[in-house]
Design a protein that fits this description.
Layout: H1 2-5, H2 18-37, E1 51-53, E2 60-62, E3 70-74, H3 75-81, H4 86-90, E4 128-132, E5 159-165, H5 170-173, E6 180-186, E7 192-202, E8 209-218, H6 221-224, E9 226-237, E10 240-241, H7 246-250, H8 253-256, E11 269-271, H9 274-282, E12 296-297, E13 309-310, E14 323-324, E15 331-333, E16 335-350, E17 353-380, E18 406-438, E19 441-460, H10 465-473, H11 485-493, E20 498-521, E21 524-543, H12 545-548, E22 564-579, E23 585-596, E24 600-614, E25 617-628, H13 632-636, E26 640-648, H14 650-653, H15 660-663, E27 664-672, E28 680-694, E29 697-713, H16 717-722, H17 724-727, E30 731-733, E31 739-745, E32 747-768, E33 771-788, E34 795-797, E35 811-821, E36 824-833, E37 836-837, E38 843-844, E39 849-850, E40 855-856, E41 859-869, E42 874-881, E43 912-921
Parallel strand pairs: 4-6, 27-31
Antiparallel strand pairs: 1-2, 3-5, 5-6, 7-8, 7-43, 8-9, 9-16, 10-15, 11-12, 11-18, 13-14, 16-17, 17-18, 18-19, 19-20, 20-21, 21-22, 22-23, 23-24, 24-25, 25-28, 26-27, 28-29, 29-32, 30-31, 32-33, 33-34, 33-35, 35-36, 36-41, 37-40, 38-39, 41-42, 42-43
């Protein structure tokens, strides 16, 4: 069956308890030893039909369809799409919703910046398990709300295929597999030398890319008894600034979202006290010829030093001051340099047994450039020409002063430079193992050492705060325009160049499994697999002494910040039973038990059934339970101080006639970990069918349903403020009744529901006089997606509706049309995400109004490529991504640093032209 062909997979190895492992490994090696000593079978022996391992199963079998739905992305499909990174590739998977990308991680904050992740079913990055050749990798080391493998550490050029198991698989793979499993499978037996060069350029400039790949291997396992190969891949992507994209201006952000811009400007805005404002009004002071109505003023109104600083009466600066449009002065896509090296060696011990080793090294350096430094500082009014002639030292004017005669400035310090950080993610992974069969037993054993190291470095635009504010107060640094030579020299001397955050995660594991036939049923051999794993995890987080001193402007010290070092041991054992009752009916039963040090244990059973009434039709169903263990960041991360989006405080609003101009703000939050967390639990089931009426056409349709309980989460700050009767104890207030801060605690609470349909259509090799044609559609239609914040609370749906920090589109698809004739081929593809109701909650604290409601338009991108096989060794390919230069649709979301569009499911790069050349010596 064609669908069967798409489901080939390699070894997906897992687990065992230490107590089991010692005895089992000893017995396993005893089985292998006599087999190693035997001679290889005679060449005249009939070659057996090879067995393969199916994703989601630990039992090798003759290739066939399984009870679990698996989508496969081949190397050829990767080349046709013109993608060069694992993250770009996953963006084309319809079941992947809201994964972290370079574009979405643009921010002036630092929490897990640089992390690229997958998110199957939209139920969370932490619930998607990513494997490399069937084994785990160390997770992204920086502490934060998301746990998972950094896709930057997957050597994209080495990928042979990607297998996406779209069903919970905790019964085999343990934690994190609730949403599904993504297995990146690399080349295994390469011979010769292959060179590949790739380059792309965008229509409007910026975000260009160059890559170079060298693949080399020697040895034929079948003939020589060994193979060693390596893949080295280098990539560089250029930065993309807002000034390079016309669509930014076309979004009309200052007009539509003025309140999401900034009140820190150049020349600086002046923040008066109420007494100072009243005094100035009483003494005839005016802005733009009018008395003051607000406390924030700027004498340059209405000029405001355009274009970045604007006069927007409806903006955050208000009618008397300026507003800074940071969306005209930041980056949409970061500069990055990626280097990957993967090497694999195989030694054929005899006809049935192999010793193998893998080395994967990667380094990804991403440079983030945000808008120039923002500073809050004081200055004596006599140093401000527009105020110097007034007497702000008087009793009337200084009634509210902390220091008599001082005024507060809110400065955009262009002379300090744009804030620039370098995030370096480095990964090492070493695997050595033994695999094969002996005396009727199939086995696999492996040792795995994986490390991920994160270095977050402030390199420019971050300034020593104490010397900065002193320089402003003393008049050395000019807050109202360019500084003189002395001011610039001071700014240069206080630039921070420091590794402010350093994180390291280490995972060491031993895993093995053994499978064997246990009898014969009407449909064939029944088989049993048992296996297990012992895994040791350690994370270290070291903030720099300078960061902890809280003396870096715009990079505040974490509240209660301190170095942390945490570790734990995980033990697991599992089993699987394959029962082919008849030629039509087959059952797969599996179960796993994991025990996490401190956290406790979790059992995960699963059952799957397939029914094949005829060779061209298959029906399947599965049901199981899963779990996600709390990460060490969930358990032990120090308190993190952040802030909400601009939200109203109902208690305060009730005292000011619900005037949002007075009672809405970005309130401080304090986010706490919880060492007493228990695992999340899930139950999921799926029902589907595969139909292949001809060799050229097939269809799969699968219904899936997931429920998670005991969610490890915080109650959303918007939920807390929306239900003070229940959650008011989490809101801490000042003596005047206004909010001081809001507590956000990690706890096991509430539930999540998600369900939908996956559809795959394939047409292959339809031959005509004009060539051979084919097509492929992979789509996901979500029926339900909603979350309950606490037991007893109503469910809140994010299906087709932006809630808190994201949305799950109703429908996503990728469709591809292929043509080839002789040495020529071409491909046309479309990726599509349905539109949705916008966040529609951002508040204008000047006018006291909520942003105009909006529906985000559907997002549809077309790509086209063509290839010419010049000779057996030489191939050229060229293409266009985003053929129609489709811009991200307008969004009023306020959850991300980027405003005006949603960076989680759109691509700001626009139309891109690319070409590649591949030459192989074999």
């Amino acid at each position: 069956m064609g669908e069967v062909h798409s489901m080939r997979v390699t070894t997906m190895t897992q687990s065992v308890r230490l107590a089991l492992s010692v005895g089992a490994v000893t017995g396993l090696l005893a089985l292998v030893q006599p087999a190693v000593a035997q001679d290889a079978p005679a060449a005249t022996s009939a070659a057996p039909i090879p067995k393969v391992e199916i994703t989601g199963s630990a039992i090798r079998r003759i290739e066939s369809e399984t009870a679990l739905p698996v989508q496969v992305i081949t190397r050829e499909e990767i080349e046709k799409a013109g993608v060069t990174t694992a993250s770009e590739l996953m963006a084309r998977v319809s079941a992947n919703v809201g994964g972290l990308t370079d574009g979405a991680s643009i921010t002036d904050g630092h929490d897990q910046r640089g992390f690229n992740s997958a998110n199957l079913r939209g139920i969370g990055t932490s619930s998607t398990l990513v494997l490399l050749n069937g084994r785990r990798m160390a997770n992204f080391a920086s502490p934060g709300d998301d746990t998972g493998v950094d896709l930057n550490n997957i050597p994209a050029a080495a990928i042979q295929r990607v297998e996406v198991l779209l069903d919970g698989a905790s019964a085999l793979y343990g934690t994190d597999a609730i949403g599904g499993v993504i297995n990146f499978i690399t080349r295994k037996d390469f011979q010769g030398v292959e060179l590949n060069a790739y380059g792309s350029k965008t229509k409007e400039g910026g975000a260009g890319k160059r890559t170079a790949t060298l693949t080399a291997g020697t040895g034929d396992v079948a003939k020589d008894g060994y193979n060693v190969f390596m893949v080295a891949d280098l990539q560089r992507t250029d930065a993309l600034s807002t000034s390079q994209r016309k669509f930014i201006d076309n979004l009309h952000i200052p007009e539509r979202l003025p309140h999401l811009l900034s009140g820190y400007t150049s020349p600086a805005n002046i923040r008066l006290t109420g007494a100072q404002r009243d005094y100035l009004n009483d003494n005839g002071f005016t802005i733009n010829g009018k008395p003051l109505t607000n406390r924030t003023i700027n004498p340059s109104v209405p000029g405001c030093s355009a274009p970045a600083n604007l006069y927007l009466p409806a903006g955050i600066g208000g009618v008397d001051a300026c507003t800074y449009n940071y969306m005209g002065d930041t980056e949409l896509y970061p500069k990055s340099d990626k280097a990957n090296l993967l090497s694999r060696g195989v030694l054929q011990l005899n006809a049935n047994n192999q010793l193998f080793a893998e080395v994967a090294l990667s380094r990804s350096k991403t440079t983030y450039v945000a808008s120039s430094a923002r500073v809050r500082a004081n200055i004596n009014y006599k140093k401000i020409p527009a105020l110097a002639k007034y007497n702000l030292d008087s009793d009337e004017a200084s009634a509210d002063d902390d220091v008599v005669g001082d005024v507060e400035l809110r400065i955009r310090l262009n002379d300090g430079g744009r804030r620039t950080s370098e995030l370096t993610s480095e990964s090492q992974r070493y695997v050595v193992g033994l695999t094969g069969s002996a005396n009727g037993f199939d086995y696999d054993i492996g040792l795995n050492h994986s490390v991920n190291t994160i270095k977050d470095k402030d390199t420019h635009g971050y300034l020593l705060y104490d010397k900065l504010v002193k320089g402003i107060y003393d008049g050395v640094i000019n807050p109202f325009g360019p500084s003189d030579a002395a001011g610039r020299a001071l700014l240069d001397s206080i630039q921070v160049n420091d590794d402010v955050r350093h994180a390291r995660g280490v995972m060491d594991s031993i895993d093995f499994k053994v499978s064997h036939a246990v009898g014969t049923l009407a449909g064939g051999e029944a088989a049993l697999a048992v296996g297990g794993e012992v895994r040791h995890e350690r994370t270290d987080f070291t903030p720099s002494a300078l960061l902890l001193s809280d003396n870096i402007n715009n990079d505040a010290a974490p509240d209660g910040g301190r170095p942390t070092s945490d570790k734990r041991t995980v033990q697991a054992v599992y089993g699987e039973l394959l029962l082919p009752f008849t030629k039509q009916w087959e059952a797969q039963l599996s179960a796993r038990y994991d025990h996490y040090q401190v956290v406790g244990g979790a059992a995960s059973p699963k059952v799957g059934i397939t029914y094949t009434p005829v060779k061209t039709m298959l029906f399947r169903a599965s049901a199981g339970r899963g779990f996600r263990a709390p990460s060490m960041s969930d358990l032990y991360r120090p308190t993190l101080v952040s802030s909400t989006a601009t939200l109203p405080d109902p208690a305060y609003c009730a005292t000011v006639d619900n005037n949002y101009a007075d009672c809405a703000d970005a309130w401080e939050t304090r986010r706490y970990s919880n060492a007493n967390l228990k695992p999340e639990h899930s139950r999921q089931y799926s029902v589907g069918m595969v139909i292949e009426p001809t060799k050229q056409a097939s269809m799969t349709l699968d219904y899936w349903n997931i429920k998670r309980t005991d969610l490890i989460s915080e109650i959303g700050d918007d939920i807390i403020l929306g239900n003070l009767a229940k959650y008011g104890n989490l809101v801490h207030r000042l003596d005047n009744g206004q909010i001081d801060y809001i507590e956000l605690h990690k706890e096991n609470r509430g539930a999540q529901l998600a369900s939908g349909l996956d559809l795959v259509l394939d047409f292959r090799g339809v031959k005509t006089w004009a060539g051979s044609f084919g097509g492929h559609l992979s789509g996901t239609y979500v029926l339900n997606s909603k979350i309950q914040n606490a037991v007893g609370d109503p469910y809140v749906s994010n299906l087709g509706r932006f809630v808190t920090d994201g949305v799950v589109p109703r429908w996503r698809h990728t469709v591809t049309f292929d043509w080839d004739q002789g040495p020529y081929s071409a491909s046309l593809s479309n990726t599509y995400s349905a539109g949705y109701e916008d966040q529609n909650s951002a508040i204008d604290t000047n006018g006291g109004t909520v942003v105009a409601a909006n529906r985000v338009k559907a997002y549809s991108l077309w790509d086209m490529s063509g290839a010419w096989q010049v000779s057996k060794a030489f191939k050229l390919r060229a293409g266009v991504q985003n053929l129609f230069n489709t811009a991200p649709p307008y969004s009023n979301q306020a959850a991300f640093f980027i405003s005006g569009y949603d960076p989680t499911y759109t691509d700001p790069r626009g139309r891109r032209f690319y070409a590649s050349a591949n030459y192989a010596f074999k």
